Amino acid sequence: MTDHSRPVRLAIIGSGSIAEAAHMPAVNTQGGATQVVAAVDVDFERARAFAARWRIPAAFEDVGRMLKETAPDLAIVCTPPGAHREAIVTCLNAGVWVWCEKPPTLSLAEYDEIAAHEREGGPYVAYVFQHRFGSAARALREHIRTGRLGRPLIGICHTLWYRGDSYYQVPWRGKWSTEGGGPSMGHGIHQMDLMLALLGEWTEVRAATATLARDVETEDVSMAIVRFASGAMVSMVNTVLSPRETSYLRFDFPEATVELTHLYGYDNTNWTWTPAPHRVQDTPADLGAPEQNDASSHTAQLRHLIDALRSGRRPEASGDDGRRVLAFIAALYQSASSGAPVTPDLIAPGNPFYYSMSGAPLPSTSAEREESHV
Questions:
Q1: What CATH number did the domain enclosing 161 receive?
Q2: Is position 3 within any domain?
């Protein structure tokens, strides 16, 4: 997009709760940098009602028709996970950039198939991993890069959330073929992505999963031990069975412990910077806690994405950078299934977990996928 003087034209694909609660507020706080031109939903009446609430000029039930009639620059995909691939590929083939909700796809095979439709300079598809974009996470990542606190040693990555039985009455939830996995895929993915964005490449995962309380095909709890190329080790839990909900990350360095305690988003007040005993007089600022206080949010990530779109460069949380957490989750599921540690090189074509987080190949055609969802 070479004309920086006009707003980026946006389309919303999927008019459910995440579009309502997160994406439209994010769009409307971009200071005139965006203009929503269309809303799309397979339920046309829902699309029309959504468009009316947000004063969007056009509503559609077909993505292809919307692209031809409104010519957006960027499409925001807010559909259930099983519908991500078709919407993304349709947009990329039309030359339209995409920002897609998590989880990116149902499998690494789908992710790589989609990536083949990108072109140098765009269009690109980025995925919603908004926790990377808060100021404290950005500061800590830079400190890890420069070694300001020493090398990372020990970490904790916990997503302890609660989803009752009613949550899984939505037909596509709790099924491998339509949600792709349990809380490891649909809930803890945010904390795990932030952990990976901070600590870098992982080298081994040992995991266990169980279905303890919910009537689902997938797990409702997973636990793992993760090793990183830096030598750091991390303990991880993902669950939807915890009445007192929290999202908790902790990183221990020789010079400090840095902790994040929040639920669905954070600002600087959710972070704790504790000096090591030999630096007991140091303040959080001495350790590198940022003065600027940008919250993690869809708003923050969208701002970065718009800048990348205008510049024609690959955005953060896309390509290999967006793929990393999906490969990690595939390895987690394989380790839990096999009882053995899994390394990144194992998650490749020919491995059943490359094609499905359950280890069973997904249907290969659109017709077969639709039939499997009935």
A1: 3.30.360.10
A2: no
Each residue's pLDDT tens digit, 1-13: 657 779 999 999 9
193 near 129, Cβ under 8 Å? yes
| 273-293 exposure pattern, b = at least 16 Cβ within 10 A, e = fewer | bebbeeeeebebeebbbbeee
- Assigned domain for 340 exists: no
Q: What does the pLDDT look like over 165-188, one tens digit per residue?
A: 999 999 999 999 999 999 999 999
* Distance (Å, whole) CA 309 – CA 17: 26
What is the domain extent for residue 87?
A: 8-130+300-320
Please answer whether residues 34 and 10 qualify as being in contact, where contact means their C-beta atoms are separated by less than 8 angstroms: yes
User: Cα 55 to the chain's mean position, in Å?
Assistant: 28
Co-location of 78 and 211 in the same domain: no
Task: Give the pTM.
Answer: 0.94
Does residue 187 contact residue 196 with C-beta atoms inside 8 Å? no
